[in-house]
Amino acid sequence: MGAAGSKLEKALGDQFPEGERYFGLENFGNTCYCNSVLQALYFCVPFREQLLDYYANNKSIGDVEENLLTCLADLFSQISSQKKKTGVIAPKRFVQRLKKQNELFRSYMHQDAHEFLNFLLNELVDILEKEAQVVKSDPETSSPSDKIANGPKNAQANGALKEPLVTWVHKNFQGILTNETRCLRCETVTARDETFFDLSLDIEQNSSITSCLKNFSSTETLNAEDKFFCDKCCSLQEAQKRMKIKKPPHILVIHLKRFKYIEQLGRYKKLSYRVVFPLELKLSNTMEDADSEYSLFAVVVHVGSGPNHGHYVSLVKSHNHWLFFDDENVEMIDESAVQTFFGSAQEYSSNTDHGYILFYECLGSTSNKS
Amino acid sequence: MIHSNGNNGYGNGVMTSASPTTTSLSPSSASANGQSTQQQQGLKTYFKTPEGRYKLHSEKTHPPGILPYSHGKSVSQITLAHLKEKPTQAGSASSSGASTSSGVRYAAARLLGVGGGNGSRALSFVGGNGTSKAANGTSRSSSLAASNGSHSMLNSNYDGKGTYMIFNVGDSLFVSDLNTQDKDPIKSLHFSTSNPICHSFDPEAKDGHDLLIGLNSGDVYSVSLRQQLQDVGKKLVGAQHYNKEGSVTNRQDYRCTSVAWVPKADGAFVVAHADGNLYVYEKSKDGTGDTTFPVVKDQNQFSVAHARSSKSNPIARWHICQSSINGIAFSTDGAYLATVGRDGYLRVFDYQKEQLICGGKSYYGALLCCAWSMDGKYILTGGEDDLVTVWSMEDRKVVAWGEGHNSWVSGVAFDSYWSSPTSDGTEESVMYRFGSVGQDTQLLLWDLSMDEIVVPLRRCPPGGSPTFSTGSQSSHWDSICPVGTLQPAPSMRDVPKLSPLVAHRVHSEPLSGLIFTEESILTACREGYVKIWVRPSNSESQSSNPEIPVGNSSKEIPPVPGKTGASSYKSVHL
């Protein structure tokens, strides 16, 4: 593994980015779902920086109880402070904590990388919110001017938490969807906002992410068994529903629904569909006019033909180089190799490496700078 | 590991699903042929347009049972070539070429003068990773020789006439006769070290060499197509080799992405590479001189370097951009060269002056293909934003976006044989017909009407407001674009949208190219499967005749819509 590290260093040569570390993560038996997502999050630079900031702030407090947030911060800081530029790290404490926290991840069964990402982000938010409340009850540390909770020190105080707390995790990943429902009888439009950390998209064979996003926002008619309760009509009515992105997130996480429950089979099936994803993307189904551009920086790839077994790897773009992370191994790859993870145009194919979670970062936006 | 997966995934699907039907087909019954293949794939053998039905006439692919070996993933592309008559003396390539009359060039230009103007169409999605497995070449070529015995017979009877289609699959280049219903190619050429990626045919070739082949390794060959057809072997004969083993290109990613003969330039050609450089060659030159070029000073700037020695071939290097050039196309008159690339930019150059004229960015993502209208007024581009973009040379701006593909747009072309059914020279009927194919496996046809596009785009009479824009904030239409500048991506609301006239799922695999001929539309998928769709004929009884020759060249030259459109186009917006 040391040799593999030096190979990567050789491949990058004098282009090795200053201060950057490329470390593989040890697999503790089916923990590739965790490793692949951790690599994607580590190379989500604003997230990493803010986590390390939080860690630095938190250290001064000292005796914070161990939780997933501290374990993650610990791991990231461990990677970033390595003397060597490449190598392997064992995310032991983090994985132990994860298994302690959630029985779902306790077994050695194959786990879903998207479920893990979702659990992790929500857990981080919970921890930050709890910390903020503790701080709130302690008036001496309050700093009412700062609305961003970056560590317990500068959480929103002043009691009235009318609006939900916006943590730095929110600032990075949270977007807002508007669910518009128009009653076909009285024409009243009911709009309801919901927040999201990622978009889960239905996929079709030989389509693009652009097309999947378009379908996500397309108008759907609610009828028959699935009518809408209109408050104005006070009854179930046929209605038209559509989802629009009201506030696009800074980090856009797109989850491809490759695991589909097939009723006839009574089990999940993996869809190996070819879904192309561009390296740059714009959201045209937003309420705002700004066509902000996103750039792909990480892909979590599911390897395997079925949903209950297989492997996860990740592709990461760091300082304009693409890297391939497979547990302990890190390799440099060509940008054009990303296309080999689109999926298969035919159902039965020996190519089983399929892009599963895509991470895009908004370019030219500074919303995450706190 | 990644690479091997890419390789393994190559082509398995199509070949396994296509070969059982292939063997059971009788080549003479095209319609039955099409249906039996299509039913299992749920694909129709016709599609309707306002002018009538386009019907599946025949299909072409590589020989069944032979899976061309692939040095990494490569995408099939198609090139049309027209050869008119048997050479007076069989033999050397140069004499056969010299004997072709000007009539050949005329007819061939007519067949090929669509879209790219040279019959070549470049697609970007050549994912050549440059991997090289140890080839088991010996065993394969021996089996080939056995199974292709009938083809060598064909070759000896070859009369030198006809319309041919050249396409690449894996490590092979195939030539099919478009005038027969035969599904199998009449010629296959194997490349032992690298995949052929792109090709171009020169209908005006003065001496024998009329076919260019660009390889994944960066190597380029020029050959005489006629000479290849006369030969029974599996290797190129009488080829001239350029950029041998990357002697010119030496950067990491030097694979050829697109080749094109320069129209009316007597044997000059250009080769675009994945490293953002384009080289200009002259086929008459040996290239024994110094072939090195100075280091590009500013990677971000367009620059042209000429060879130090007059003996050198290539004679010039154009540094166009930092990332891959995915497609190139010359305007029909050869005055302009358009390039599209990974960086999402369309660039238009004055070829003689070696100057950037104009260009602009895609909505987002890479651009994959481009094509000119016959009159040189419009350029189509397609790319990773799923849009077909219409670029106006006069405005130096995007004037329309075609929305309708559900995936990346991999091939675009104007239909220069199409004329509006109501066309009588009046202004209202100025229209262009164009087509696009995408990775969504669909062929889309579009009508571009000048009334819809040009009028709203122009300013309304003083006091009026633009009819399409939501407000005056838009700078897309207000700004004047100076010559030599590249436009940023327009915003969604600034560009008028087009809807397709027809959307038809033509293949089961992502598509890679399309060509319009006088009689038909050719669609090709990435795996090397080509379908020929015959245009609707004036009377339905005629179209039921299965003996319609596809590459028939004995008809009059059709009216070019752009020509009749030229005067009325102006009057629309005056």
Automatic annotation (TrEMBL), chain A:
Belongs to the peptidase C19 family. The keyword Protease applies. It comes from Quercus lobata (Valley oak). GO terms for biological process: protein deubiquitination; proteolysis. SUPFAM superfamilies: Cysteine proteinases. The gene is LOC115994791. It catalyses: Thiol-dependent hydrolysis of ester, thioester, amide, peptide and isopeptide bonds formed by the C-terminal Gly of ubiquitin (a 76-residue protein attached to proteins as an intracellular targeting signal). This is ubiquitinyl hydrolase 1. Recognizes and hydrolyzes the peptide bond at the C-terminal Gly of ubiquitin. Involved in the processing of poly-ubiquitin precursors as well as that of ubiquitinated proteins. Required for the correct development of pollen. Residues 23-363 form the USP domain. Its EC number is 3.4.19.12. It is found in: Nucleus. Pfam families: UCH. Keywords: Hydrolase, Lipoprotein, Myristate, Nucleus, Protease, Ubl conjugation pathway. GO terms for cellular component: cytosol; nucleus. It comes from the Eukaryota. InterPro entries: Papain-like_cys_pep_sf, Peptidase_C19, Peptidase_C19_UCH, USP, USP_CS. One of its GO terms (molecular function) is cysteine-type deubiquitinase activity.
Automatic annotation (TrEMBL), chain B:
Pfam families: WD40. Residues 16-32, 139-150, 537-547 have a biased composition (Low complexity). Keywords: Repeat, WD repeat. Residues 33-42, 565-574 have a biased composition (Polar residues). WD repeats lie at residues 360-401. The keyword Repeat applies. Residues 1-42, 130-150, 537-574 are annotated as: Disordered. This is Uncharacterized protein. It comes from Quercus lobata.
